[in-house]
Write a structure and sequence with these properties.
Blueprint (H helix, E strand, L loop, with lengths): L10 E3 L10 E3 L15 H19 L4 E2 L2 E2 L1 E4 L4 E4 L2 E3 L4 H22 L2 H5 L2 H17 L2 H9 L4 H26 L5 H9 L5 H21 L1 H7 L2 H4 L10 E4 L1 H4 L24 H4 L20 H13 L6 E4 L1 H4 L15 H23 L3 E7 L6 E2 L5 E11 L5 E8 L5 E4 L4 E4 L5 E9 L7 E11 L6 E10 L1
Antiparallel strand pairs: 1-2, 3-4, 5-6, 6-7, 8-9, 10-12, 11-12, 12-16, 13-15, 13-17, 14-16, 17-18
Helix pairs in contact: 2-15, 4-6, 4-8, 6-8
Amino acid sequence: MSKKLADIPVKVIPADGPDDEYEEIQLYAKHKKLYPRWINGFWNKWRIFFVFATQLFFYGMPWATINGRQALLFHLAEQKFYILGLVFLPQDFIYLTALLLMCALGLFVWTAIGGRLWCGYSCPQTVYTEIFLWIEKWVEGDRPARMKLDHGPLTARKVRLKTIKHAIWIVFALWTGFTFVGYFTPIRTLWAETITLTIGPWEAFWVLFYGFATYGNAGWLREQVCKYMCPYARFQSAMFDADTLVISYDAERGEQRGRRQKGCDYKAEGLGDCIDCTMCVQVCPVGIDIRDGLQYECIGCAACIDACDEVMDKVGYPRGLIRYTSDNALQHKYTERDIIKRITRPRVVMYSLVLLIAMGATATALVLRQPIKVNVSRDRVALVREADNGWLENSYRLQIENADEAPHSYKVSVEGLPGVKWIMEGGEHVKVTPDAPVDVGIRVQADPANAGPGSHPIQFVIQAEDDPKLVTHEKSSFIGR
């Protein structure tokens, strides 16, 4: 586990005099900049893959089109959300709730199985920090060169390299902010406005704000976001158990750690496989020593595994001194080969079952969803009046929104009362385009013999004339007397 406060060096400021009863104790050391060393290996290749996969999606998706429209666009001005050919309206907020629920359940499943896989490979903070570190390494060099540059005197070369690095960071961050805003404002329109300097104030604000956040979090704060600001690091232990795969140091095999001559009988000297090279610490992007045990700061990036395996290959020892394993396997409660069998334990099965139910329910709702939204409002001034023919009459307003990419002509009818009649403004047929809702008035009449005092349930039926399957029923009530 992480170090206790008592293990942190403290500085005691003596009392000024005999009458002073208090002393100030400094428990937290000043933050020191980390210089992660570049490492190649199996897990690092996966990290590179996920960096490119996630960013290819993020930067490329706003430019993709379906049916002549941006494939993924949360158009706030039009209050419509275009997602892979589907159109969602604010009334479809339930689908966003379902999406967030599935994401949370998915996170629970993966955390129970493999720990902080999300943090190590796909979290935006991790991904952008990795990209910024790549830029820093490309401009300033690897760990020793960066440390020498930072600790050296201020020279023309140092100013030049720092300027180039920050300039690239800023351009990349601004492009990230521009792309982010492109998910809420059509990105081609946003690009045209940007290059002609006619971009709106709100779009400009959010481009700069998100760009600044990317520059600050990935370029300056880095691991501090994961250690001190991210809540996931605090509650992840609630989803862990002794069978969860986590990055662990095999202390039984590695201790007593220490340096030795190559080819010597180190076991006779009482040494373990760890040669205390500190490479696992040097490559860690959050600056922890995995040999101290599982710590909440660990983001599960597996850089220490690649570094340790590389060292083990050089000294001729077996790999796996640091590896993905479970606490029970590390304590020899079962073999490493039996780890895969523990994936189907009750906690994981329960999480997975709930996730599958949520996914199935959402998919079913999407299949049955009708791309037409109707809001019915009653005339509050006169709930009921007597028409010229002696029948009772209620007045309503129908707001019809077309959540489809193509325009439709709808026929409106009323059901629920025997012999019910209705009179619509402009006739029974309403043409609705995807661009704007249509608001129409409708008067519903019923025979007093069939509409006594009180409320009577009715429903408005709105059906597309070009597609009989496109129909919706909106419930309302008829007031009689």
